[in-house]
Amino acid sequence: MPDLEDTLKKELECEVVKPFGARSGSFRMFDTDKYGKVFVKICSDKKIARPMFEAEMVGLNMLRELNLPNVSIAKAYKVIDLPYMKGGACLVIDYLFTENMFSEERQRDLGKALAHLHLHNARMKTEQPEKYVSKFGFNMSTYCGRIPQDNSWKDNWVVRRIF
């Protein structure tokens, strides 16, 4: 039976997939010959594993497109089914070293990036009207941890988030 390393080699078309660093039941880290260091998130819950990771992949790649100032967003490479888990899946993303994540400077940068993110749609209204969205939501449901979040489009943010 193939294990995670074998599955990653096959699905990522890598010859080298070498584990490094910490690990748990929900994540592993590998150094690969094709992608460099990657972080692999793992979920064994066959009901949510694939849709949860597909939503995360879409979200991460959309955030990367925004080119947020002073913030690194991991590139999501692939969602991979894990047959040996009988329905589980994993998400392979860039490994980001976060040694100084809690410094005052990093927290300030994250705050600025968050403000930039929240103003993105307002900028689109004048800069690229064809990309402006007049509703609140997202084009797919996402997850908060393992809890699904309905993100269907609504006219009102309060209705969108509370009801």
TrEMBL record:
Enzyme class: transferase
SUPFAM superfamilies: Protein kinase-like (PK-like) (SSF56112)
Pfam family, one: Fructosamin_kin
InterPro entries the record matches: Fructo-/Ketosamine-3-kinase, Kinase-like_dom_sf
Catalytic activity: N(6)-D-ribulosyl-L-lysyl-[protein] + ATP = N(6)-(3-O-phospho-D-ribulosyl)-L-lysyl-[protein] + ADP + H(+)
EC assignment: 2.7.1.172
A GO term, aspect molecular function: protein-ribulosamine 3-kinase activity
Protein name: protein-ribulosamine 3-kinase
Lineage: Eukaryota, Metazoa, Ecdysozoa, Arthropoda, Hexapoda
Recorded name of the encoding gene: LOC103515483
